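ingest -> fold -> write
write: protein_1
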Amino acid sequence: MGHGGPTAPIVSFLSDYGLLDEFVGVCHGVIASRCPRARVIDLTHSIAPQDVRAGAFALRGALPFVPAGVHLAVVDPGVGSARRAVAMRTAVEDRLLVGPDNGLLMLAAERFAGVSEVVDVGRSPVRLEPVSSTFHGRDIFAPVAAALAAGAALRELGEPLDVAELHRLELPTASFSGGRLTAHAMHGDGFGNVVLDASPEQLAALGGAPGDTVTVRHGELAHTARLGRTFAAVEPGALLLYADAQGAAALAVNLGSAAELLGVERDAELVLERA
């Protein structure tokens, strides 16, 4: 099989390593050494340092558009601690996720009906020795990802774990009652758009057609947002309520930043109702 050809195994890679240091390149090198046929797709390496939740949302958003394969993710503030290193198989599409057991992988796994099999790879027979206490991406996760891409069975790479033992992120929950949608600012992007935890169904329950207005309350402050499908649906500087590319409810400012306008922090509660 030719490198990069249609049958080349896929390894996607997400991290908070950034590109100023050699860390990403070293992980690429380990994968290339262990599985030269693999095609590595870099999803992003610009997750804010140690921001597990941001990495989890980015991974969940990306994987439905990436061919099924091995998905390596490393945002690991607990590296070298008692946290486990894991590799897991999703219940549908047979995707293999590799990374720390800190919640980073779980939102993505849930997009594919959850986890059907998981192993602890902290002492995997394919890991590099000696194992650094601070660079498990190089010494554990990249070798395991490469071995899986090369065709190794999951059970050969670690000790079986109970799926129920996996660490999950604790997240707030949106609700709709009495014509009001109570949502939370879950995460943002580099454009200052604020993604809410409201589902498409909850956004639909709020009602309204493109062009209608919604009052957005954050504490004692109130803003008027207009429903729309595109950023240009509102005037520059105006607030927009829309469904983002993942189908989640989100707030944006045309040619501006909703995060700055609203002054919201992560998990901030926002109450939305038709104006």
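write: protein_2
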Amino acid sequence: MTNPPSVVVLGSVHMDLIATAERLPGRGESVVGQTFTVSPGGKGGNQAAQLVACGLHTYMLTRFGDDMFGRQLFEALTSRGIDPSLITVDANEPTGASTVFAAEGDYSSIIVSGAAGKLSPADIEAARGVIETADALVLQLELPFAISTYAARISKAAGKLVILNASPAPDKAADLPKELLKAVSVVIVNSFEAGKLLGRELPPSDAARELAKTLGVETCIVTAGASGSAASRQGTIVFQPSFFTKVVDTVGAGDAYLGAFVAGLVEGLSLPATLKRAAAAGALAVSKPGAVMVTREEIDRFVG
């Protein structure tokens, strides 16, 4: 029996405090909510969980505080099958948290990375051996650019795939460090984030093409909800329509999409097949409440 592909996810894991209502509040306004839940979150943690659900050996490289949230999140990660051997505990900084407001099939959030934002080059060096041998490194932009760039350069030098989920997106593409982009194999963003980076909104296929040119990255993926998703790889565009499904909420849907995409990528699937499985994961995720991870078996059944 061969070992499954392995991935290192460098990012934040924090506790999501999720309130749902019929609509999002305006500035300075309060609305009466319907439900409130506390659950593990953070782009890094959600993406790692999705990668495990797709059958990959997944390491989480992050830092927790020595507090209740940190202990709960550590237990949650290990119970989902995520390898915790690269997680460190910070005695001074609290574990990160995110306030999430969900309504009308959409959401807004405020993310405080906490201890994860204090990761240092020494933490990355301690993980160098795993980063160099893993098939891929997955990054987001919830951590300082310098830390992500440090890890990306190690992975790139070892000939591995580096996937950047450029979220939360900066105000413009020029704000992304060139050294980071030089090490990146794939950039994945949603249509809103692509619009920020490009300075204008475009359909997903056009946005993917322009973003690849602007960033100088080999492959760019733009997801646009019901409008589908598109990939630009070396000038060739592949468009994937969305699967119709009833939307319960969109929390974690982008992370489900990314996890399924990375799984297909490291397993050597074609780009169209990988996009199809990623779109299926996104559709399955929005059909359930909260940041629900989608199993390989569910995706297999969905795509037939």
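write: annotation protein_2
The chain has a mean pLDDT of 91.
The chain is about 35% helix and 25% strand.
pipeline exit 0
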